Each structure stands twice: as C-alpha cells, then as structure tokens.
C-alpha cells in the first residue's frame, strides 16, 4: 500500500524535510511520499482525526504543535516526555506514538567525537534549548549550564532539569568544553550578523555547536573555527533528526553521506 507522510506546522514556511524524506523513499524503493501540510492551531484536532482515519503513516511535527499534539496520541517516549515536546509521530501496530528525534539528532554528532566534553553551556531557553539539555544529560555530561537573555526563563529550565543557571552576562567567564547555541542569533535575516558569543571568549579545545543551519556557517561557528575550536553545524542535528524519523517510519536507514550531500546541495542552491 502506498504510504503517506508529511510535516505539520503553522506557518510552515519553507521546509527541506520533504526533500530529505522523498529522496530517502526513492533511494530505498519505498512506496511513499512526504508532503508539507500547513495546519493551524484551530485545525489540529480535525487533522489528527485524519491521521487515524486515512491513515497517515507518520508525521513530523513542528512549531506550534509540538506540545499540543501530545493530547492526540497513544504513547509518548520517555525522551519526548522529558523535553515536553514531540516532533515525530509513528505507528507501533495500532498505537500512534510520539518521539522527540530533535534530541537524537542533537546527540548524534557529539557521539561521534573521540572524547565527549565534560562540561557544556546551552545558550537560550526555548524549545530547542530543552531538547539540547535532555540530549546533554542523555550523553552523561556532568556539568551543564544554561544562560538566557531573560534570566527567569533560564532559572525555570535550570530548576526543572537540575542544571546550573548562568547569568547571560557571565556566560563567557567559565571555560566550557562545549557551547551550544539554540538562539536565533546568526540565522539568515535580521540576526545574521550577530553571534551569542564574543570572538575573544573562545579558547582552543572548546567545541562550538550551532543548531542554526541557515547559513551553514554562522558568525558563531566562523569565529570559533578561527580561534582554533572544533565546530558542529546545525545541519548535523537537522540531518540526524530526519534520519531517526525515517528509521522509525520505515525500519530502514537512509544513506547518511548521501543525505548530507543532498542537504548541502539544497541549502547551497
Ligand atoms: P525555540 O523554541 O525554537 O528554541 P524560542 O522559544 O523563540 O525558540 O527561543 C529563542 C531563544 O533565543 C530564547 O531563549 C530567546 O531569549 P529570550 O527568552 O530572552 O527571548 C533567545 N533570543 C532570541 N533573540 C535573542 C537575542 N537577540 N539575544 C539573545 N537571545 C535571544
């Protein structure tokens, strides 16, 4: 039976998820297609009815539905429950299940390092920061800090996840092993020329990880690299959250190197 997958969000804007998943289906000869479905908050309930009725075989879920969708599914993974958000729906027999592959995607490039850093600071306190903190904990990183422009939000996260709360102004005072940017600073558009870290605040040996992938090399990563730091681009997190979704849906692994090249070509075109 031909299977139907897609992404829901509002406003959905441009998304490269269809490019990735349709390429994977094609490469592996899976009879399926992946569409972009703009679904507003008011339409979520009726859309979730369709997910069961049609049925839709799997979904990517993005802003603003990552929390609300949890009310419409049968099981939520421990990981997604910890984050408090679901970005992937898949079927396990007749049960509609929720997972958070943002965490899996965030962790993947860190797992392939020869040595995991022993300390990490997360910049920002939104949904992406929550996924990053859960990922860092899953990796077993002992010393985790969170810093946010609005300190009260960092305090809430620090309390919930039992990590250190760092004042935004003091974020560069500690020699963190890993710096994770989850703010939009550096993203193409109005934030592109900005960075969440001073270039003099990098020391060689630090790892700079940006979850922004457009542009591929943000100012944060460029300056980190120039200071002798290892860098990880947001493309890795995006790629690996997608590969994990594809695995949950098809039980098959997409060709990682080919998929990375596809995304690089798409983003550079
Ligand atoms: P997401 O859920 O995708 O992570 P979000 O909830 O909008 O996105 O979070 C964006 C984060 O970037 C917030 O922590 C925000 O800080 P505030 O809580 O102070 O708003 C942070 N952010 C946005 N613009 C920023 C800026 N110009 N400087 C520093 N931090 C910024």
Map the helices and strands:
Layout lengths: L2 E7 L7 H12 L3 E7 L5 H10 L4 E4 L13 E2 L1 H6 L4 E5 L2 E5 L1 H11 L7 E5 L3 H12 L4 E6 L2 H11 L2 E4 L10 E4 L25 E4 L8 H8 L3 E3 L1 H17 L5 H13 L1
The structure holds 2'-monophosphoadenosine-5'-diphosphate.
The site of 2'-monophosphoadenosine-5'-diphosphate has 14 residues, from α5.
Which features does this protein show?
269 residues, binds 2'-monophosphoadenosine-5'-diphosphate, 37% helix, single chain, 9 helices, alpha/beta, 2 domains, Rossmann fold, six-stranded parallel sheet, six-stranded mixed sheet, globular
Describe the structure.
With 269 residues, the protein is of the alpha/beta class. Helices cover 37% and strands 21% of the residues. It contains nine helices and twelve strands. It has helices at 17-28, 44-53, 78-83, 101-111, 127-138, 151-161, 219-226, 234-250, 256-268, and strands spanning 3-9, 32-38, 58-61, 75-76, 88-92, 95-99, 119-123, 143-148, 164-167, 178-181, 207-210, 230-232. The strands form two sheets. A six-stranded mixed beta sheet has the order 2-1-3-5-6-4. The two termini are 34 Å apart. The relative contact order is 0.13. The mean pLDDT is 97. 2'-monophosphoadenosine-5'-diphosphate (ATR) is lined by residues 124-129, 148-150, 153, 182-185.
């Amino acid at each position: 039976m031909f299977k139907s997958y897609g992404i829901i969000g509002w406003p959905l804007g441009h998304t490269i998820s269809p490019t990735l998943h349709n390429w994977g289906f094609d490469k592996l000869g899976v009879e399926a297609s992946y569409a972009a479905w703009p679904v507003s908050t008011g339409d979520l309930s009726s859309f979730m009815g369709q997910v069961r009725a049609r049925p839709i075989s799997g979904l990517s879920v993005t802003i603003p539905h990552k929390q609300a969708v949890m009310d419409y599914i049968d099981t939520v993974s421990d990981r997604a429950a910890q984050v408090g958000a679901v970005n992937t729906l898949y079927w396990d027999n007749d049960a509609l299940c929720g997972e958070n592959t943002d965490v899996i995607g965030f962790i993947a490039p860190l797992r392939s390092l020869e040595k995991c850093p022993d300390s990490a600071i997360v910049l920002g306190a939104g949904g992406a920061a929550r996924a990053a903190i859960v990922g860092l904990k899953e990796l077993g990183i002992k010393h985790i800090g969170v810093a946010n422009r609005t300190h009260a939000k960092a305090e809430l996260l620090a309390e919930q996840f039992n990590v250190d709360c760092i004042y935004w102004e003091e974020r560069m005072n500690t020699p963190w092993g890993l710096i994770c940017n989850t703010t939009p600073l550096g993203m193409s558009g109005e934030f592109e020329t900005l960075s969440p870290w001073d270039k003099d605040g990098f020391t060689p040996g630090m790892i700079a990880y940006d979850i922004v992938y457009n542009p591929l090399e943000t100012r944060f990563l460029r300056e980190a690299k120039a200071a002798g730091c290892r860098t990880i681009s947001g493309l890795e997190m995006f790629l690996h959250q997608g590969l994990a979704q594809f695995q949950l849906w098809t039980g098959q692994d997409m060709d990682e190197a080919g998929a990375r090249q596809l995304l690089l070509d798409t983003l550079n075109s």
